[in-house]
Each structure stands twice: as C-alpha cells, then as structure tokens.
Write a structure and sequence with these properties.
Elements lengths: L1 E4 L5 E5 L11 H12 L5 E4 L6 H8 L4 E4 L18
Parallel strand pairs: 3-4
Antiparallel strand pairs: 1-2
Length: 87
C-alpha cells in the first residue's frame, strides 16, 4: 500500500500493489495521482528508504516532483512521527 499525504496528513493518493513488489516500481503511478489531485502543484515529496535510488528519483522528476529521502534513526523502538511537530 502506497499512501501520499500532505503536510497536514490529509490523504492525497493511495496506490495498492502486491507486497512482493518494490516500492520504487510504483513511483510514477503514485506521483501521477498526486499531481492529478494537486493540479501539478507538488514539488517535493519526503519519502522513506523504500523509494530511494536513481530510478525512483527519475520517475518522480518526470512528474515534476523531487524526492527527499528521510532516514530513520539507527536505533528505532516503537512508533514515532517523522519530521518536526508544530505545537
């Protein structure tokens, strides 16, 4: 399951695939959905390591989106929110 949300966690797009498929293989489809919903306003997408690599970046760029990789801390325990919290 691939989800795209905005900075307020509002759902922009959902793309379902088999669990055996690579995340990187579906960047184009997800980016197309996001650009369709946002009127091609999305410029940067923060992604996890599943979307890293040159092909994923190229596929996103073909839709006008630059991927920014967010790396998790080495010692992760439990659940936590990535990025900063305002308030």
């Amino acid at each position: 399951m691939h989800l795209a949300v905005d900075t307020l966690s509002h759902l922009l797009a959902v793309y379902a695939t088999a669990v055996s498929e690579s995340d990187r293989a579906h960047v184009t489809e997800l980016a197309q959905q996001v650009q369709g919903v946002t009127g091609s306003m999305m410029q940067v997408a923060f992604v996890d390591q599943g979307y890293s690599g040159e092909q994923g970046a190229a596929d996103a760029a073909s839709q006008g989106i630059r991927l920014e990789l967010v790396k998790l801390p080495d010692a992760k325990h439990g659940f936590f929110r990535l990025g900063s919290s305002s308030g």
